[in-house]
Amino acid sequence: MRKRVIEILIFVLIIIGLTINVNAQNVDKVQKAYSCLDSLVGNTTLTLDEAIFASLANSRIVKAEEKIKSEKSATESCWPKAGCNVKTTAQVAIAYDHLGRDTKDITKWLLSKNGTISGFSWYLQVTIDNSEMSQCKINYDNADYPLSINNEMKLSGNLGSCLSIDPNGYRMRINNNCANKVFGVNCDKGFKINLLYEKNSGGTLYVSSRTESGSANSWKSLDISAKCFKEGNACNYEASLWATAALYSTNENYEAFVPYLSVLMEENPRLMPSAFLSYIEGGSQHYEKLIQSKFSRPQERAYWEVSGNRYYDTALGMMALGGCKDSGEEACTNPDLKDVANFLFDGQTEKGCWNNNNLKDTAFLLYAGWGETLIQSGVIGDGGGSVIIITGNETCTELEGTCRATCSISERTTDEGSCPVGEEFCCVPPYDPNSLPDCEVNNNYCVERGACLGDAGGELVSEYECSISNLVCCSQDYVEKTCLEQGGEICLDDEVCNNDIVDSSDGACCKDGCVKGETFECTENSECDEEAGEICEGGECIVPSEKGCLNDLECREGEKCDGGICTTGAGGSKTWIIILIVLIILIVIAIIFRNKIQMFLFKRKGKGKSGPVGPNGPGGPAGRFGFGGPMGRAPPRFGGGPGIRPAGPISRPIIRPSPVVSKPVVVSRPAPAKKMTEKEKDMEDTLKKLKKMAE
């Protein structure tokens, strides 16, 4: 028994060891990708695009930065010199900010390319704290106009030529000729004001990230600010995405460009605007769209593919969700990206890169997925290795770090500390997740940028940093209000919001009331999106074997959401784990009781049964149950043999004369009960235990 226990413990340790080994292998795969990228950069004549993304991935920065410098315009801070454009210049700004270079002149050039957008409808919204009745005044062009608000938040009043109350009664429409005016609001109760916008043709109504809160009898004002980035004389959506991301990355004010990106996102799905907006603004609305656009595969693999290049698109998705946040031996601890990392590890080339050893895509994936948290090691290619230019004023030792050519996986590099040898990294211990970031130590707050400048009503404190990359240091804390506190309601599954949707701690909050939505039930496949691979099943358009879900409520009755897929079982991976554990237990039992189980199976086959002995064996002629046969062989005897007494007396027929018939009557005397041996008792006890376990 002791030997069996030791065997089981060894088996369990092997399973644990295999799990640890898988994590270690994943980390090795990331390191291999860095080494492959270093080799490509070292042995390639770089294009400007390749140099920009190689810089983001910290690969051979000297060579990459020299290429970027050589492509700069001789007269302006823009790229490329053959003809500056907004998109490329914005990407250089992000790369330079990542390397710690000055970006003021670059962002100044970008902002000079802004333009005013048209084709939008704008609304001014006023809400009263605690949904109380209130009397307000609206001011523009140095004139006041009365506004009454009842306890249902409906408006009434004569608001002049620039404002008119929308038919739903909850907001004021701004005349297109007044889009350049400033609107002031004063109420006799505490209040909030914000702007809403949509396309002139209608559709989704968006809420501006800026909200002003006022106390009773105070004035608050808002003005319309909606811009785009132009290439030539027209707004360019892709250029605006990258340029707005560059302003966000460099701590410049980007908010005026968000309305343009939000309103036109439905018309530009191939550019993955939800990824950019999630990176810039955060919020559940952009996050959910980004997650829903992820293409799920069997066996829990996933990626994004909307533009035709799954590796570039997947890098955008990883950047928006904050990267893999690797820790220790696990190469991806971000739950939203674990399946993405597994997909990437499965698709690496022999060298370790991605997309047929594509330099730009590999660099973008490493930057978006792992950033600086894993540093490439070893001497690659021509022996140049990886070089990071250190620009900090502090020495590495002052930061409790060590200067080495290669940092370990458990360390991080920093450009805040300098090393005497340019080829060495300043290796410092990883961040302590339990310690407060510099921002909070100095009595500030780490919040999303839009929240800081909007509902929090604070100012950016750029001299302090937050440990989470998509948060900024803000002078005021932001606590998201519940939907009820904002005077709204959460719509049910069969309801839709009547236009005005805002974020809340409960999720998407409807301010204009919920109405019953139109239920669409398909009857044939042609009514579904065939390009997306949808089919009609049970009146619903779904992708076969896949149904993206966020929780059980999004699945049908009897189904559960497991890993983004609606299933009828208890969950794919969990079910297999349970089955595996049960099989292991059964195998262990079979090993321990193998001799007794063999005896049981042997008896079940009939070899141990006794019965009346007739001609040619048991059961009658020719051995009906397999013993005897045409040659009339006697059945095997259990418990008898030469020199061995039988276990019990054998019954013999007794012949008595019958008064009725002349033929003798054979009466079999029952054999006495056979005494059970110790082995048979043990076998019977074992079978009883197995039966109880099966029950």
What's the gist of this structure?
With 695 residues, this protein is α+β, with helices and mostly antiparallel strands. It is 30% helix and 19% strand.
Describe the secondary-structure layout.
Blueprint (H helix, E strand, L loop, with lengths): L1 H41 L5 H9 L4 H10 L15 H14 L4 H8 L2 E3 L3 E9 L5 E7 L2 E7 L5 E2 L6 E3 L6 E3 L7 E6 L3 E9 L6 E9 L4 E5 L3 E5 L2 E2 L1 H13 L8 H6 L9 H9 L2 H9 L2 E3 L3 E3 L6 H11 L17 H9 L12 H11 L24 E2 L6 E3 L7 E2 L3 E2 L6 E4 L9 H4 L3 E4 H5 L17 E4 L20 E3 L3 E4 L2 E4 L3 E3 L18 E3 L2 E3 L17 E3 L2 E3 L4 H21 L1 H11 L8 E2 L2 E2 L35 E3 L8 E3 L10 H17 L1
Give the overall shape, derived from the CA principal axes.
Answer: globular
Share of helical residues:
25-40%
Main β sheet profile:
5 strands, antiparallel
Number of strands: 34
Estimated structural class: alpha+beta
